[in-house]
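Reviewer comment 2.1 asked that we show a complete input and output for one of the modelled complexes. We chose the flavin mononucleotide case, as it is the one discussed in the main text.
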Amino acid sequence: MSAIELFGTTFHNPILLAAGTAGFGRELDDVIDLDLLGGIVTKAVTPEPRQGHPALRVAEFRGGMLNAVGLANPGVERVAAHELPWLAQRLRRARVIVNVAGATVTDYVRVIERLTPLQAITAFEINASCPNTKAGGLEFGADPVGLADLVRACRRVSTRPLTVKLSPVLPDIAAMARVAREEGAEAVTLVNTMPGLLDKRLGNGSGGLSGPALLPIGLLATRRVRERLDMPVIGVGGVRNVADAREYLAAGAALVAIGTAALADPRVPVRIARELNRG
Ligand SMILES: Cc1cc2nc3c(=O)[nH]c(=O)nc-3n(C[C@H](O)[C@H](O)[C@H](O)COP(=O)(O)O)c2cc1C
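Response of the prediction step:
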Protein backbone atom coordinates (compact mmCIF):
# COMPACT_ATOMS: atom_id res chain seq x y z
CA MET A 1 0.00 0.00 0.00
CA SER A 2 1.60 3.25 -1.10
CA ALA A 3 1.35 6.58 0.66
CA ILE A 4 -1.72 8.76 0.15
CA GLU A 5 -1.58 12.40 -0.92
CA LEU A 6 -4.45 14.38 0.60
CA PHE A 7 -4.94 17.81 2.15
CA GLY A 8 -1.64 18.92 0.62
CA THR A 9 0.34 16.40 2.64
CA THR A 10 1.34 12.74 2.69
CA PHE A 11 -0.34 10.06 4.83
CA HIS A 12 2.13 7.18 4.97
CA ASN A 13 -0.77 4.74 5.18
CA PRO A 14 -4.57 5.17 4.94
CA ILE A 15 -5.51 4.15 8.50
CA LEU A 16 -6.76 6.76 10.99
CA LEU A 17 -8.15 6.60 14.51
CA ALA A 18 -11.74 7.87 14.27
CA ALA A 19 -12.98 10.95 16.14
CA GLY A 20 -13.97 10.48 19.75
CA THR A 21 -12.54 7.04 20.19
CA ALA A 22 -8.89 7.91 20.83
CA GLY A 23 -9.22 11.18 22.78
CA PHE A 24 -6.21 13.29 21.81
CA GLY A 25 -3.92 10.29 21.56
CA ARG A 26 -2.33 10.44 25.01
CA GLU A 27 -4.38 7.59 26.43
CA LEU A 28 -3.07 5.30 23.71
CA ASP A 29 0.57 6.37 23.82
CA ASP A 30 1.65 3.59 26.16
CA VAL A 31 -0.26 0.96 24.21
CA ILE A 32 0.58 1.62 20.56
CA ASP A 33 3.07 3.60 18.48
CA LEU A 34 0.78 6.31 17.08
CA ASP A 35 3.30 7.01 14.31
CA LEU A 36 2.53 3.64 12.75
CA LEU A 37 -0.87 5.06 11.81
CA GLY A 38 -1.64 7.34 8.89
CA GLY A 39 -3.14 9.74 11.40
CA ILE A 40 -5.40 10.47 14.31
CA VAL A 41 -8.70 12.34 14.33
CA THR A 42 -9.13 14.03 17.70
CA LYS A 43 -12.29 13.95 19.73
CA ALA A 44 -14.69 16.83 19.10
CA VAL A 45 -13.47 20.24 20.25
CA THR A 46 -15.99 22.90 21.36
CA PRO A 47 -15.26 26.47 22.52
CA GLU A 48 -15.97 25.73 26.20
CA PRO A 49 -15.14 22.59 28.17
CA ARG A 50 -18.04 20.11 28.11
CA GLN A 51 -18.86 17.49 30.71
CA GLY A 52 -20.96 15.48 28.29
CA HIS A 53 -24.01 13.36 29.04
CA PRO A 54 -24.72 11.50 32.28
CA ALA A 55 -23.64 7.85 32.74
CA LEU A 56 -24.12 5.33 31.30
CA ARG A 57 -22.53 6.60 28.14
CA VAL A 58 -22.08 3.39 26.18
CA ALA A 59 -24.10 0.23 25.77
CA GLU A 60 -23.25 -2.83 23.72
CA PHE A 61 -25.58 -4.90 21.56
CA ARG A 62 -25.00 -7.65 18.98
CA GLY A 63 -24.49 -5.27 16.03
CA GLY A 64 -22.05 -2.98 17.82
CA MET A 65 -22.64 -0.28 20.42
CA LEU A 66 -24.58 2.85 21.23
CA ASN A 67 -22.86 5.87 22.73
CA ALA A 68 -24.16 9.08 24.23
CA VAL A 69 -20.90 10.76 25.21
CA GLY A 70 -22.27 14.23 24.44
CA LEU A 71 -19.08 15.77 23.04
CA ALA A 72 -17.24 15.72 26.38
CA ASN A 73 -13.95 17.59 25.86
CA PRO A 74 -11.64 20.02 27.69
CA GLY A 75 -12.52 23.03 25.49
CA VAL A 76 -10.50 24.81 22.83
CA GLU A 77 -8.10 26.69 25.14
CA ARG A 78 -6.85 23.55 26.82
CA VAL A 79 -6.66 21.72 23.51
CA ALA A 80 -4.56 24.57 22.08
CA ALA A 81 -2.32 24.84 25.13
CA HIS A 82 -1.82 21.16 26.02
CA GLU A 83 -3.30 18.51 23.74
CA LEU A 84 -2.13 19.70 20.32
CA PRO A 85 1.38 20.68 21.49
CA TRP A 86 1.72 17.20 22.98
CA LEU A 87 0.69 15.60 19.68
CA ALA A 88 3.03 17.91 17.75
CA GLN A 89 6.08 16.90 19.78
CA ARG A 90 5.07 13.24 19.90
CA LEU A 91 4.26 12.54 16.25
CA ARG A 92 6.75 12.42 13.40
CA ARG A 93 4.73 10.88 10.59
CA ALA A 94 1.11 10.46 11.69
CA ARG A 95 -1.12 13.39 10.68
CA VAL A 96 -3.51 15.22 13.01
CA ILE A 97 -7.08 16.00 11.99
CA VAL A 98 -9.08 18.01 14.54
CA ASN A 99 -12.78 17.21 14.90
CA VAL A 100 -14.83 20.40 15.51
CA ALA A 101 -18.32 20.58 17.04
CA GLY A 102 -20.74 23.17 18.35
CA ALA A 103 -24.30 24.22 18.98
CA THR A 104 -24.12 27.29 16.71
CA VAL A 105 -22.09 28.24 13.64
CA THR A 106 -20.23 30.71 15.85
CA ASP A 107 -19.02 27.85 18.07
CA TYR A 108 -17.32 26.15 15.10
CA VAL A 109 -15.84 29.45 13.95
CA ARG A 110 -14.40 30.14 17.41
CA VAL A 111 -12.70 26.75 17.58
CA ILE A 112 -11.22 27.02 14.10
CA GLU A 113 -10.06 30.62 14.53
CA ARG A 114 -8.22 29.64 17.70
CA LEU A 115 -6.61 26.48 16.32
CA THR A 116 -5.92 27.20 12.66
CA PRO A 117 -2.51 28.83 13.28
CA LEU A 118 -1.20 25.68 15.00
CA GLN A 119 1.29 23.90 12.76
CA ALA A 120 0.39 20.47 14.10
CA ILE A 121 -2.98 20.45 12.32
CA THR A 122 -3.33 18.89 8.88
CA ALA A 123 -7.08 19.48 8.49
CA PHE A 124 -10.30 20.16 10.38
CA GLU A 125 -13.12 17.63 10.41
CA ILE A 126 -16.43 19.47 10.73
CA ASN A 127 -18.88 17.35 12.69
CA ALA A 128 -22.09 18.31 10.89
CA SER A 129 -24.21 15.93 12.97
CA CYS A 130 -24.53 18.29 15.95
CA PRO A 131 -27.96 19.78 16.71
CA ASN A 132 -28.16 23.45 15.66
CA THR A 133 -29.80 25.28 18.56
CA LYS A 134 -30.74 28.17 16.27
CA ALA A 135 -32.63 25.78 13.98
CA GLY A 136 -34.68 24.17 16.73
CA GLY A 137 -32.19 21.34 17.24
CA LEU A 138 -32.13 20.18 13.61
CA GLU A 139 -28.66 18.85 12.74
CA PHE A 140 -26.49 21.25 10.73
CA GLY A 141 -25.94 18.60 8.10
CA ALA A 142 -29.60 17.67 7.73
CA ASP A 143 -30.57 20.38 5.26
CA PRO A 144 -28.62 22.02 2.43
CA VAL A 145 -28.96 25.59 3.74
CA GLY A 146 -27.82 24.70 7.27
CA LEU A 147 -24.87 22.74 5.89
CA ALA A 148 -23.89 25.45 3.41
CA ASP A 149 -23.97 28.14 6.12
CA LEU A 150 -21.79 26.02 8.40
CA VAL A 151 -19.18 25.05 5.81
CA ARG A 152 -18.99 28.57 4.37
CA ALA A 153 -18.34 30.07 7.80
CA CYS A 154 -15.68 27.46 8.61
CA ARG A 155 -14.03 27.90 5.21
CA ARG A 156 -13.80 31.64 5.72
CA VAL A 157 -11.75 31.37 8.90
CA SER A 158 -9.74 28.19 8.27
CA THR A 159 -6.26 28.26 6.76
CA ARG A 160 -6.35 24.42 6.74
CA PRO A 161 -8.29 22.01 4.54
CA LEU A 162 -11.75 20.90 5.69
CA THR A 163 -13.45 17.53 5.65
CA VAL A 164 -17.16 17.52 6.49
CA LYS A 165 -18.46 14.57 8.48
CA LEU A 166 -21.98 13.56 7.48
CA SER A 167 -24.69 11.48 9.08
CA PRO A 168 -25.67 8.16 7.47
CA VAL A 169 -29.37 9.07 7.71
CA LEU A 170 -29.51 11.63 4.92
CA PRO A 171 -31.91 10.93 2.04
CA ASP A 172 -29.27 11.95 -0.55
CA ILE A 173 -25.77 11.92 0.92
CA ALA A 174 -24.08 12.71 -2.41
CA ALA A 175 -26.18 15.87 -2.75
CA MET A 176 -25.04 16.99 0.71
CA ALA A 177 -21.40 16.19 -0.12
CA ARG A 178 -21.81 18.39 -3.19
CA VAL A 179 -23.05 21.24 -0.98
CA ALA A 180 -19.96 20.82 1.21
CA ARG A 181 -17.67 20.87 -1.81
CA GLU A 182 -19.36 23.93 -3.33
CA GLU A 183 -18.72 25.77 -0.06
CA GLY A 184 -15.03 24.88 -0.19
CA ALA A 185 -14.62 21.58 1.68
CA GLU A 186 -11.80 19.42 0.31
CA ALA A 187 -13.29 16.07 1.48
CA VAL A 188 -16.15 14.38 3.29
CA THR A 189 -15.97 11.87 6.12
CA LEU A 190 -18.58 9.13 5.77
CA VAL A 191 -20.21 8.25 8.13
CA ASN A 192 -21.01 9.43 11.62
CA THR A 193 -22.98 7.25 14.02
CA MET A 194 -26.64 6.43 13.37
CA PRO A 195 -29.34 7.41 15.91
CA GLY A 196 -30.56 4.48 18.01
CA LEU A 197 -32.22 3.43 21.24
CA LEU A 198 -31.77 0.55 23.67
CA ASP A 199 -34.39 0.63 26.41
CA LYS A 200 -33.07 2.36 29.58
CA ARG A 201 -29.48 1.52 28.78
CA LEU A 202 -28.07 5.06 28.30
CA GLY A 203 -28.16 8.06 30.64
CA ASN A 204 -29.17 10.29 27.75
CA GLY A 205 -31.91 7.95 26.49
CA SER A 206 -30.95 7.62 22.83
CA GLY A 207 -27.44 7.44 21.38
CA GLY A 208 -25.32 6.91 18.28
CA LEU A 209 -24.90 3.45 16.83
CA SER A 210 -21.40 2.40 15.76
CA GLY A 211 -19.54 -0.81 15.05
CA PRO A 212 -20.18 -3.73 12.68
CA ALA A 213 -23.81 -2.83 11.81
CA LEU A 214 -22.51 0.41 10.28
CA LEU A 215 -20.14 -1.24 7.78
CA PRO A 216 -22.52 -1.70 4.81
CA ILE A 217 -24.07 1.72 5.48
CA GLY A 218 -20.71 3.52 5.40
CA LEU A 219 -19.66 1.55 2.33
CA LEU A 220 -22.79 2.53 0.42
CA ALA A 221 -22.38 6.20 1.37
CA THR A 222 -18.75 6.11 0.22
CA ARG A 223 -19.64 4.44 -3.07
CA ARG A 224 -22.55 6.84 -3.76
CA VAL A 225 -20.42 9.93 -3.22
CA ARG A 226 -17.48 8.58 -5.25
CA GLU A 227 -19.80 7.66 -8.15
CA ARG A 228 -21.35 11.11 -8.30
CA LEU A 229 -18.52 13.45 -7.24
CA ASP A 230 -14.79 13.71 -7.72
CA MET A 231 -14.26 14.38 -4.03
CA PRO A 232 -12.01 12.49 -1.59
CA VAL A 233 -13.78 10.43 1.07
CA ILE A 234 -12.58 9.37 4.52
CA GLY A 235 -14.49 6.12 5.06
CA VAL A 236 -15.56 5.22 8.60
CA GLY A 237 -18.02 2.82 10.15
CA GLY A 238 -17.77 -0.77 11.27
CA VAL A 239 -14.18 -1.58 10.29
CA ARG A 240 -12.84 -4.49 12.35
CA ASN A 241 -10.16 -6.02 10.15
CA VAL A 242 -8.08 -5.54 7.01
CA ALA A 243 -10.81 -7.01 4.78
CA ASP A 244 -13.27 -4.35 6.00
CA ALA A 245 -10.69 -1.60 5.40
CA ARG A 246 -10.10 -2.93 1.88
CA GLU A 247 -13.85 -2.73 1.23
CA TYR A 248 -13.78 1.01 1.96
CA LEU A 249 -10.74 1.47 -0.28
CA ALA A 250 -12.49 -0.51 -3.05
CA ALA A 251 -15.58 1.72 -2.62
CA GLY A 252 -13.31 4.69 -3.30
CA ALA A 253 -12.23 5.92 0.14
CA ALA A 254 -8.83 7.64 0.26
CA LEU A 255 -8.43 7.07 4.00
CA VAL A 256 -10.19 4.74 6.45
CA ALA A 257 -10.91 5.59 10.10
CA ILE A 258 -11.51 3.08 12.88
CA GLY A 259 -13.48 3.79 16.05
CA THR A 260 -15.38 1.10 17.92
CA ALA A 261 -12.94 -1.71 17.07
CA ALA A 262 -10.12 0.43 18.49
CA LEU A 263 -12.07 1.01 21.70
CA ALA A 264 -12.27 -2.75 22.15
CA ASP A 265 -8.59 -3.29 21.26
CA PRO A 266 -6.37 -0.23 20.55
CA ARG A 267 -3.90 -2.40 18.63
CA VAL A 268 -6.39 -3.17 15.84
CA PRO A 269 -5.74 -0.05 13.68
CA VAL A 270 -1.95 -0.56 13.69
CA ARG A 271 -2.44 -4.23 12.84
CA ILE A 272 -4.70 -3.30 9.92
CA ALA A 273 -2.19 -0.69 8.67
CA ARG A 274 0.58 -3.29 8.77
CA GLU A 275 -1.51 -5.91 6.96
CA LEU A 276 -2.45 -3.39 4.25
CA ASN A 277 1.24 -2.66 3.75
CA ARG A 278 1.93 -6.32 3.17
CA GLY A 279 -0.41 -6.03 0.17
C1 LIG B 1 -17.52 6.70 22.04
C2 LIG B 1 -17.61 7.41 20.74
C3 LIG B 1 -17.35 8.79 20.65
C4 LIG B 1 -17.43 9.46 19.43
N1 LIG B 1 -17.15 10.79 19.38
C5 LIG B 1 -17.19 11.45 18.16
C6 LIG B 1 -16.84 12.83 18.08
O1 LIG B 1 -16.45 13.46 19.06
N2 LIG B 1 -16.95 13.44 16.86
C7 LIG B 1 -17.36 12.75 15.73
O2 LIG B 1 -17.44 13.34 14.64
N3 LIG B 1 -17.63 11.43 15.78
C8 LIG B 1 -17.56 10.77 16.96
N4 LIG B 1 -17.83 9.42 17.01
C9 LIG B 1 -18.14 8.69 15.77
C10 LIG B 1 -16.91 7.96 15.22
O3 LIG B 1 -15.87 8.85 14.87
C11 LIG B 1 -17.29 7.11 13.98
O4 LIG B 1 -17.80 7.97 12.98
C12 LIG B 1 -18.34 6.06 14.30
O5 LIG B 1 -18.14 5.50 15.58
C13 LIG B 1 -18.36 4.93 13.26
O6 LIG B 1 -17.12 4.24 13.21
P1 LIG B 1 -16.87 2.84 13.99
O7 LIG B 1 -17.99 1.92 13.60
O8 LIG B 1 -15.52 2.38 13.53
O9 LIG B 1 -16.90 3.17 15.45
C14 LIG B 1 -17.77 8.73 18.24
C15 LIG B 1 -18.01 7.35 18.32
C16 LIG B 1 -17.94 6.68 19.54
C17 LIG B 1 -18.20 5.20 19.58
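The first helix runs from residue 76 to 90. We note this here for comparison with the apo prediction described in Section 3.2.
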